[in-house]
UniProtKB/TrEMBL annotation:
The keyword Zinc applies. The enzyme apparently serves as a quinone reductase in connection with conjugation reactions of hydroquinones involved in detoxification pathways as well as in biosynthetic processes such as the vitamin K-dependent gamma-carboxylation of glutamate residues in prothrombin synthesis. It catalyses: 1-(beta-D-ribofuranosyl)-1,4-dihydronicotinamide + a quinone + H(+) = beta-nicotinamide D-riboside + a quinol. Its cofactor is FAD; Zn(2+). Keywords: Cytoplasm, FAD, Flavoprotein, Metal-binding, Oxidoreductase, Phosphoprotein, Zinc. Homodimer. Residues 4-192 form the Flavodoxin-like fold domain. It is found in: Cytoplasm. GO terms for molecular function: dihydronicotinamide riboside quinone reductase activity; metal ion binding; NAD(P)H dehydrogenase (quinone) activity. This is Ribosyldihydronicotinamide dehydrogenase [quinone]. InterPro entries: Flavodoxin_fold, Flavoprotein-like_sf, NAD(P)H_dehydrogenase_qn. Belongs to the NAD(P)H dehydrogenase (quinone) family.
Amino acid sequence: MAAKRVLIVYAHQSSGSFNAAAKDAAEEVLAAQGCTVQVSDLYAMKFKATATAEDITGEVKNADHFRYAQETNLAWEEGKLCADITEEQCKLTEADLIIFQFPMYWFTVPAIMKGWIDRVLTLGFAYSQEKRYSQGIFKDKKAMLSFTTGSHESMFSSNGINGDMNVTLWPLQNGILHYCGFQVLAPQIFWAPSHIPSEVRGTMLEGWRTRLQGVLGEKPLYFTPLDCFDREKGYQLKPEVHEKHATKEFGLTVGIHLGLALPPNNQMKAGV
Ligand SMILES: Cc1cc2nc3c(=O)[nH]c(=O)nc-3n(C[C@H](O)[C@H](O)[C@H](O)COP(=O)(O)OP(=O)(O)OC[C@H]3O[C@@H](n4cnc5c(N)ncnc54)[C@H](O)[C@@H]3O)c2cc1C
């Protein structure tokens, strides 16, 4: 594998946590392969989680009706975004792969990581009306979620109490990562590390280390390409694409399911 640049966006308060161990393993294994690895340790950085007018240096355009996306878009064009956002955007620009390492909070990322997403993925820098999804700005980069849960895997299955993890992952993987164009690699899920024996945790970490050896060569998850949708008709699926799939057993993806059964593991495995 050619030397690549990796950014780990990491959100855990404790260096003794399982998340810290997963982050350390990624740093070590990727660096041993010759990758340049940067870590944004969000709690250590006391990363600001709220999207506010303070994210812009100097005057905002319309203080009476402040609109975050439009104001930060302008500030990005004029080089007026505040330093912590600009620094993260530089790291992101340089990276070939971004790994988000976090404990699942309320079925999603912790607030501090959501703040990173809200503030760093600025309109213009990370997405625009023309450049999104499969034609998105970061289409030459890869991104993946690596996270721990409190729940066991059975609870996040299609007949488990929390519902199907594929559904839970759709907003994060489609609505954020793929929206910005990233090729989304299959998530790395460490199920319930607090509730399993120590040796099972060790085995999970070993599995992660093995995966990391080839992670940059992995095939991404499937998302429906942008050109399957008709811009003139409110970005609905083109009739010919719809017709082609109408007789199939499964929908295209978890979200674009056409009223059919969800394609199993569409958000968990490449090639489905
Ligand atoms: C606000 C909030 C919301 C939550 N929402 C959800 C939710 O929606 N769904 C859900 O499933 N869960 C939820 N949880 C639970 C949360 O996801 C888990 O507590 C978390 O993922 C556990 O990961 P950790 O890194 O914090 O584990 P830790 O408790 O830090 O670690 C687990 C165990 O691993 C051990 N360990 C550390 N390093 C190593 C190592 N190198 N090798 C082997 N073992 C090691 C630790 O000593 C510990 O015994 C929520 C928790 C909070 C606080």
